[in-house]
Design goal:
Layout (H helix, E strand, L loop, with lengths): L2 H13 L4 E6 L6 E4 L2 E4 L11 H12 L3 H10 L1 E8 L3 E10 L2 E9 L6 H4 L3 H6 L5 E6 L6 H15 L3 E6 L12 E6 L7 H8 L6 E4 L5 H12 L3 E6 L4 H9 L7 H11 E11 L5 E9 L2 H9 L7 H7 L8 H10 L5 H7 L3 H15 L13
Parallel strand pairs: 7-11, 7-12, 8-9, 8-10, 10-11
Antiparallel strand pairs: 1-2, 1-6, 2-3, 4-5, 5-6, 12-13
Length: about 375
Protein backbone atom coordinates (compact mmCIF):
# COMPACT_ATOMS: atom_id res chain seq x y z
CA UNK A 1 0.00 0.00 0.00
CA UNK A 2 1.55 3.28 -1.14
CA UNK A 3 1.34 6.67 0.61
CA UNK A 4 -0.97 7.91 -2.20
CA UNK A 5 -3.42 5.08 -1.42
CA UNK A 6 -3.26 5.80 2.33
CA UNK A 7 -3.91 9.50 1.67
CA UNK A 8 -6.78 8.69 -0.72
CA UNK A 9 -8.52 6.49 1.90
CA UNK A 10 -8.00 9.06 4.68
CA UNK A 11 -9.35 11.84 2.44
CA UNK A 12 -12.40 9.74 1.56
CA UNK A 13 -13.04 9.04 5.26
CA UNK A 14 -12.60 12.68 6.21
CA UNK A 15 -15.03 13.90 3.52
CA UNK A 16 -17.67 11.21 4.14
CA UNK A 17 -19.63 13.09 6.83
CA UNK A 18 -19.80 16.51 8.43
CA UNK A 19 -17.99 17.19 11.73
CA UNK A 20 -15.73 14.11 11.60
CA UNK A 21 -13.54 13.97 14.72
CA UNK A 22 -11.95 10.48 14.57
CA UNK A 23 -11.06 7.94 11.89
CA UNK A 24 -11.24 4.32 13.09
CA UNK A 25 -9.50 1.35 11.45
CA UNK A 26 -10.34 -1.93 13.20
CA UNK A 27 -10.14 -5.60 12.08
CA UNK A 28 -13.56 -7.09 11.30
CA UNK A 29 -15.22 -3.71 10.62
CA UNK A 30 -15.24 -1.44 7.54
CA UNK A 31 -13.42 1.90 7.61
CA UNK A 32 -15.33 4.01 10.16
CA UNK A 33 -15.45 7.61 11.33
CA UNK A 34 -16.86 9.26 14.44
CA UNK A 35 -19.24 12.04 13.46
CA UNK A 36 -21.00 14.06 16.20
CA UNK A 37 -20.18 11.33 18.71
CA UNK A 38 -21.55 8.42 16.57
CA UNK A 39 -19.50 5.70 14.83
CA UNK A 40 -20.52 5.29 11.17
CA UNK A 41 -19.11 3.20 8.29
CA UNK A 42 -17.57 4.77 5.20
CA UNK A 43 -18.18 3.56 1.65
CA UNK A 44 -14.94 3.22 -0.29
CA UNK A 45 -14.39 1.97 -3.83
CA UNK A 46 -13.36 -0.85 -4.00
CA UNK A 47 -15.46 -1.69 -0.91
CA UNK A 48 -13.95 -2.99 2.35
CA UNK A 49 -16.74 -4.89 4.15
CA UNK A 50 -14.44 -6.22 6.87
CA UNK A 51 -10.79 -5.19 7.26
CA UNK A 52 -8.34 -8.08 7.68
CA UNK A 53 -5.44 -8.22 10.18
CA UNK A 54 -3.02 -7.96 7.24
CA UNK A 55 -4.70 -4.78 5.91
CA UNK A 56 -4.66 -2.96 9.27
CA UNK A 57 -1.04 -3.98 9.90
CA UNK A 58 0.07 -2.71 6.48
CA UNK A 59 -1.83 0.53 7.13
CA UNK A 60 -0.10 0.90 10.51
CA UNK A 61 3.37 0.25 9.10
CA UNK A 62 2.81 2.86 6.40
CA UNK A 63 1.84 5.46 9.01
CA UNK A 64 4.93 4.58 11.10
CA UNK A 65 7.01 4.97 7.91
CA UNK A 66 10.04 2.93 9.09
CA UNK A 67 10.54 5.02 12.23
CA UNK A 68 12.71 2.81 14.44
CA UNK A 69 11.66 4.43 17.75
CA UNK A 70 7.94 4.09 17.00
CA UNK A 71 8.35 0.48 15.84
CA UNK A 72 10.23 -0.44 19.02
CA UNK A 73 7.64 1.36 21.20
CA UNK A 74 4.77 -0.45 19.46
CA UNK A 75 6.40 -3.86 19.92
CA UNK A 76 7.51 -3.22 23.51
CA UNK A 77 4.48 -1.36 24.91
CA UNK A 78 1.70 -2.49 22.58
CA UNK A 79 0.85 1.01 21.35
CA UNK A 80 2.50 4.15 19.99
CA UNK A 81 1.54 7.76 19.26
CA UNK A 82 2.53 9.83 16.25
CA UNK A 83 1.39 12.74 14.10
CA UNK A 84 0.40 12.36 10.44
CA UNK A 85 -0.27 15.11 7.91
CA UNK A 86 -2.62 14.92 4.95
CA UNK A 87 -1.07 17.65 2.76
CA UNK A 88 -3.37 20.64 2.31
CA UNK A 89 -6.18 18.82 4.11
CA UNK A 90 -5.63 17.98 7.79
CA UNK A 91 -3.29 16.81 10.54
CA UNK A 92 -3.96 13.83 12.78
CA UNK A 93 -2.90 12.59 16.19
CA UNK A 94 -2.53 8.86 15.60
CA UNK A 95 -2.60 5.99 18.08
CA UNK A 96 -1.70 2.52 16.79
CA UNK A 97 -2.36 -0.29 19.26
CA UNK A 98 -2.38 -4.06 19.46
CA UNK A 99 -5.59 -5.92 20.39
CA UNK A 100 -5.75 -9.71 20.49
CA UNK A 101 -2.58 -9.87 18.40
CA UNK A 102 -3.97 -7.58 15.66
CA UNK A 103 -3.45 -3.86 15.06
CA UNK A 104 -6.06 -1.12 15.28
CA UNK A 105 -5.62 2.55 14.44
CA UNK A 106 -7.44 5.67 15.64
CA UNK A 107 -6.66 9.00 13.97
CA UNK A 108 -7.91 12.10 15.83
CA UNK A 109 -8.36 15.05 13.49
CA UNK A 110 -6.48 18.13 14.69
CA UNK A 111 -7.89 21.54 13.87
CA UNK A 112 -5.47 23.70 11.92
CA UNK A 113 -7.18 26.98 12.86
CA UNK A 114 -6.30 27.99 16.41
CA UNK A 115 -9.58 28.70 18.25
CA UNK A 116 -10.21 31.79 20.35
CA UNK A 117 -12.07 32.03 23.66
CA UNK A 118 -14.83 33.82 21.77
CA UNK A 119 -15.04 31.17 19.02
CA UNK A 120 -15.60 28.46 21.61
CA UNK A 121 -17.87 30.63 23.78
CA UNK A 122 -15.89 29.57 26.86
CA UNK A 123 -16.90 30.72 30.37
CA UNK A 124 -15.33 33.85 31.85
CA UNK A 125 -13.07 31.69 34.07
CA UNK A 126 -10.92 30.89 31.02
CA UNK A 127 -10.17 34.59 30.50
CA UNK A 128 -9.21 34.85 34.17
CA UNK A 129 -6.79 31.93 33.68
CA UNK A 130 -4.83 33.90 31.09
CA UNK A 131 -4.13 36.58 33.72
CA UNK A 132 -2.59 34.18 36.27
CA UNK A 133 1.12 34.78 36.89
CA UNK A 134 2.05 31.46 38.51
CA UNK A 135 0.57 28.24 39.90
CA UNK A 136 -1.11 25.24 38.24
CA UNK A 137 -4.16 25.11 36.00
CA UNK A 138 -5.68 21.69 35.26
CA UNK A 139 -8.08 21.14 32.36
CA UNK A 140 -9.61 17.69 32.77
CA UNK A 141 -12.16 15.37 31.20
CA UNK A 142 -12.41 12.16 29.24
CA UNK A 143 -10.63 11.53 25.94
CA UNK A 144 -12.24 13.56 23.16
CA UNK A 145 -13.95 16.06 25.49
CA UNK A 146 -12.13 19.05 23.96
CA UNK A 147 -9.43 19.66 26.60
CA UNK A 148 -6.69 20.38 24.04
CA UNK A 149 -8.94 22.76 22.10
CA UNK A 150 -9.82 24.77 25.23
CA UNK A 151 -6.13 24.96 26.23
CA UNK A 152 -5.22 26.11 22.72
CA UNK A 153 -7.70 28.99 23.10
CA UNK A 154 -6.19 29.94 26.48
CA UNK A 155 -2.65 29.95 25.01
CA UNK A 156 -3.87 31.92 21.99
CA UNK A 157 -5.28 34.63 24.30
CA UNK A 158 -1.90 34.82 26.08
CA UNK A 159 -0.20 34.99 22.67
CA UNK A 160 -2.39 37.96 21.70
CA UNK A 161 -1.86 39.91 24.93
CA UNK A 162 1.32 38.90 26.83
CA UNK A 163 5.01 39.29 25.83
CA UNK A 164 6.07 36.04 27.55
CA UNK A 165 8.04 32.89 26.69
CA UNK A 166 5.81 29.79 26.42
CA UNK A 167 7.25 26.26 26.27
CA UNK A 168 4.87 23.41 25.40
CA UNK A 169 5.54 19.68 25.90
CA UNK A 170 3.12 17.69 23.75
CA UNK A 171 2.50 14.18 22.43
CA UNK A 172 2.20 15.08 19.57
CA UNK A 173 2.04 18.87 18.91
CA UNK A 174 -1.62 19.54 18.09
CA UNK A 175 -1.99 23.28 17.45
CA UNK A 176 0.97 25.12 15.94
CA UNK A 177 1.01 28.58 17.56
CA UNK A 178 2.62 31.40 15.54
CA UNK A 179 4.74 34.00 17.37
CA UNK A 180 2.60 37.05 18.20
CA UNK A 181 3.21 38.97 21.42
CA UNK A 182 4.41 35.76 23.07
CA UNK A 183 7.36 33.60 22.00
CA UNK A 184 6.41 29.94 21.52
CA UNK A 185 8.69 26.90 21.65
CA UNK A 186 6.67 23.74 21.06
CA UNK A 187 8.40 20.43 21.80
CA UNK A 188 7.15 17.02 20.70
CA UNK A 189 7.64 13.81 22.65
CA UNK A 190 9.86 11.37 20.76
CA UNK A 191 11.38 13.99 18.49
CA UNK A 192 12.43 16.62 21.07
CA UNK A 193 12.27 14.86 24.47
CA UNK A 194 11.73 11.31 25.73
CA UNK A 195 9.35 11.66 28.72
CA UNK A 196 7.20 14.47 30.12
CA UNK A 197 9.26 14.42 33.32
CA UNK A 198 12.60 14.89 31.52
CA UNK A 199 11.10 17.47 29.13
CA UNK A 200 9.69 19.42 32.08
CA UNK A 201 12.98 19.25 33.99
CA UNK A 202 14.72 20.71 30.92
CA UNK A 203 12.00 23.35 30.46
CA UNK A 204 12.87 24.87 33.83
CA UNK A 205 16.27 25.80 32.34
CA UNK A 206 14.72 27.35 29.21
CA UNK A 207 13.42 30.53 30.87
CA UNK A 208 9.66 30.15 30.25
CA UNK A 209 6.93 32.03 32.09
CA UNK A 210 4.25 29.55 30.94
CA UNK A 211 4.72 25.76 30.57
CA UNK A 212 2.10 23.56 28.92
CA UNK A 213 2.38 19.84 29.78
CA UNK A 214 0.29 17.70 27.43
CA UNK A 215 -0.64 15.34 30.26
CA UNK A 216 0.47 14.72 33.83
CA UNK A 217 0.81 10.96 33.55
CA UNK A 218 2.94 10.04 36.55
CA UNK A 219 4.13 11.07 39.96
CA UNK A 220 7.49 12.43 38.76
CA UNK A 221 5.84 14.82 36.26
CA UNK A 222 3.41 16.06 38.95
CA UNK A 223 6.26 16.61 41.40
CA UNK A 224 8.35 18.65 38.94
CA UNK A 225 5.21 20.52 37.78
CA UNK A 226 4.34 21.55 41.36
CA UNK A 227 7.97 22.63 41.91
CA UNK A 228 7.80 24.74 38.74
CA UNK A 229 4.56 26.37 39.96
CA UNK A 230 6.15 27.09 43.35
CA UNK A 231 9.11 28.83 41.69
CA UNK A 232 7.04 31.38 39.77
CA UNK A 233 5.99 29.54 36.59
CA UNK A 234 2.44 29.13 35.33
CA UNK A 235 1.98 25.40 34.60
CA UNK A 236 -0.98 24.31 32.48
CA UNK A 237 -1.78 20.62 32.05
CA UNK A 238 -4.48 18.00 31.50
CA UNK A 239 -5.75 15.01 33.48
CA UNK A 240 -8.39 12.37 32.81
CA UNK A 241 -11.03 12.81 35.54
CA UNK A 242 -14.84 13.06 35.70
CA UNK A 243 -15.13 16.31 37.67
CA UNK A 244 -12.98 19.09 39.12
CA UNK A 245 -12.97 17.79 42.71
CA UNK A 246 -11.85 14.30 41.66
CA UNK A 247 -8.76 15.80 40.03
CA UNK A 248 -7.24 16.45 43.47
CA UNK A 249 -7.84 12.80 44.43
CA UNK A 250 -6.26 11.66 41.14
CA UNK A 251 -3.08 13.64 41.88
CA UNK A 252 -2.96 12.46 45.50
CA UNK A 253 -3.35 8.88 44.29
CA UNK A 254 0.05 9.12 42.60
CA UNK A 255 1.73 9.55 46.01
CA UNK A 256 2.04 7.32 49.08
CA UNK A 257 -0.07 7.81 52.23
CA UNK A 258 3.00 9.15 54.07
CA UNK A 259 3.44 11.89 51.46
CA UNK A 260 -0.23 12.91 51.29
CA UNK A 261 -0.09 15.73 53.85
CA UNK A 262 2.96 17.31 52.22
CA UNK A 263 1.50 17.17 48.68
CA UNK A 264 -1.83 18.58 49.97
CA UNK A 265 0.07 21.56 51.42
CA UNK A 266 1.86 22.12 48.09
CA UNK A 267 -1.30 21.75 45.98
CA UNK A 268 -3.31 24.11 48.19
CA UNK A 269 -0.67 26.77 47.55
CA UNK A 270 -0.28 26.22 43.80
CA UNK A 271 -3.61 25.13 42.26
CA UNK A 272 -5.28 28.15 40.65
CA UNK A 273 -8.06 26.58 38.54
CA UNK A 274 -9.39 23.11 37.80
CA UNK A 275 -11.79 22.87 34.87
CA UNK A 276 -13.48 19.63 33.83
CA UNK A 277 -15.47 19.48 30.61
CA UNK A 278 -17.92 17.16 28.88
CA UNK A 279 -19.42 17.30 25.39
CA UNK A 280 -23.21 16.86 25.29
CA UNK A 281 -25.46 16.16 22.27
CA UNK A 282 -26.92 19.45 21.11
CA UNK A 283 -30.51 20.06 19.99
CA UNK A 284 -30.47 20.12 16.19
CA UNK A 285 -27.19 18.19 15.89
CA UNK A 286 -23.57 18.68 16.91
CA UNK A 287 -22.33 18.93 20.48
CA UNK A 288 -22.09 21.57 23.19
CA UNK A 289 -19.59 21.74 26.06
CA UNK A 290 -20.56 21.69 29.75
CA UNK A 291 -18.07 22.80 32.42
CA UNK A 292 -17.28 22.03 36.05
CA UNK A 293 -15.05 24.85 37.38
CA UNK A 294 -13.19 25.06 40.69
CA UNK A 295 -11.15 28.19 41.41
CA UNK A 296 -8.81 29.12 44.23
CA UNK A 297 -10.21 30.89 47.28
CA UNK A 298 -9.86 30.48 51.04
CA UNK A 299 -12.47 27.70 51.22
CA UNK A 300 -11.15 25.68 48.28
CA UNK A 301 -7.55 25.94 49.51
CA UNK A 302 -8.63 24.76 52.97
CA UNK A 303 -10.52 21.80 51.44
CA UNK A 304 -7.52 20.79 49.30
CA UNK A 305 -5.38 20.99 52.46
CA UNK A 306 -7.66 19.03 54.82
CA UNK A 307 -9.85 16.99 52.47
CA UNK A 308 -13.60 17.14 51.93
CA UNK A 309 -15.85 16.96 55.00
CA UNK A 310 -19.57 17.32 55.71
CA UNK A 311 -20.57 20.80 54.58
CA UNK A 312 -17.15 21.46 53.04
CA UNK A 313 -17.13 19.67 49.70
CA UNK A 314 -15.78 21.00 46.40
CA UNK A 315 -19.33 20.72 44.98
CA UNK A 316 -20.72 23.03 47.69
CA UNK A 317 -17.83 25.49 47.29
CA UNK A 318 -18.43 25.66 43.52
CA UNK A 319 -22.19 26.12 43.96
CA UNK A 320 -21.66 29.00 46.41
CA UNK A 321 -18.91 30.74 44.40
CA UNK A 322 -20.56 31.57 41.06
CA UNK A 323 -19.59 35.23 41.50
CA UNK A 324 -15.93 34.14 41.32
CA UNK A 325 -16.34 32.23 38.05
CA UNK A 326 -16.96 28.79 39.57
CA UNK A 327 -19.77 26.41 38.60
CA UNK A 328 -20.79 22.77 38.90
CA UNK A 329 -21.66 20.56 35.95
CA UNK A 330 -25.22 20.45 37.23
CA UNK A 331 -25.69 24.24 37.33
CA UNK A 332 -24.11 24.57 33.88
CA UNK A 333 -26.32 21.80 32.46
CA UNK A 334 -29.46 23.51 33.84
CA UNK A 335 -28.33 26.72 32.05
CA UNK A 336 -27.84 24.82 28.78
CA UNK A 337 -31.36 23.38 29.13
CA UNK A 338 -32.78 26.86 29.87
CA UNK A 339 -31.15 28.19 26.69
CA UNK A 340 -32.74 25.36 24.68
CA UNK A 341 -29.35 23.89 23.70
CA UNK A 342 -29.96 20.42 25.19
CA UNK A 343 -33.00 18.26 25.88
CA UNK A 344 -34.26 17.26 29.34
CA UNK A 345 -33.20 13.67 28.61
CA UNK A 346 -29.63 14.78 27.80
CA UNK A 347 -29.51 16.93 30.96
CA UNK A 348 -30.53 14.00 33.17
CA UNK A 349 -28.13 11.59 31.42
CA UNK A 350 -25.00 13.73 31.81
CA UNK A 351 -25.55 15.40 35.19
CA UNK A 352 -23.78 14.52 38.45
CA UNK A 353 -26.73 14.79 40.87
CA UNK A 354 -30.07 13.93 39.29
CA UNK A 355 -32.15 15.37 42.17
CA UNK A 356 -30.59 18.83 41.88
CA UNK A 357 -30.85 18.93 38.07
CA UNK A 358 -34.41 17.56 38.16
CA UNK A 359 -35.51 20.39 40.48
CA UNK A 360 -33.64 22.94 38.35
CA UNK A 361 -35.36 21.72 35.18
CA UNK A 362 -38.77 21.87 36.90
CA UNK A 363 -38.11 25.51 37.86
CA UNK A 364 -37.17 26.34 34.25
CA UNK A 365 -40.31 24.63 32.96
CA UNK A 366 -42.47 26.44 35.53
CA UNK A 367 -41.07 29.79 34.34
CA UNK A 368 -41.99 28.82 30.78
CA UNK A 369 -45.48 27.77 31.90
CA UNK A 370 -44.85 24.12 31.01
CA UNK A 371 -46.12 21.15 33.00
CA UNK A 372 -43.60 19.72 35.47
CA UNK A 373 -45.38 16.38 36.00
CA UNK A 374 -47.15 13.78 33.88
CA UNK A 375 -49.89 13.31 36.49
CA UNK A 376 -53.12 15.06 35.48
CA UNK A 377 -56.52 15.63 37.13
CA UNK A 378 -55.47 15.16 40.76
CA UNK A 379 -58.50 15.53 43.05
CA UNK A 380 -58.98 15.49 46.80
CA UNK A 381 -60.97 12.44 47.90
Amino acid sequence: MKKQEIDHILTRMLDSYGSVSDLNITVGKPFQVESAGQMVGVEIDPPFEELTPFQTEIFALNLINRDKRLTETLLREGSCDLAYALPGKARFRVNIFSQRGMYSIVLRKLETKIPTLQDLNLPEAFLRMTKEKNGIIFVTGSTGSGKSTSLAAVLNEMNETLPVHVVTLEDPVEFSHPHKKATFNQREMGNDFDTFASGLRAALRQGPKVILIGEMRDRETVEIGVSAAETGHLVVSTLHTVDAGQSIDRVLGMFSIEEEKQIRIRLSGTVRWIVCQRLLPKVGGGRVAAFDILGSNLRSRETILNGETEGKTFYEIQSASKAFGMTTFDDYIIELFEKGLITEETAMSYCSRKGIVGRGIDMVKSKRGEATTDIDNLEMA
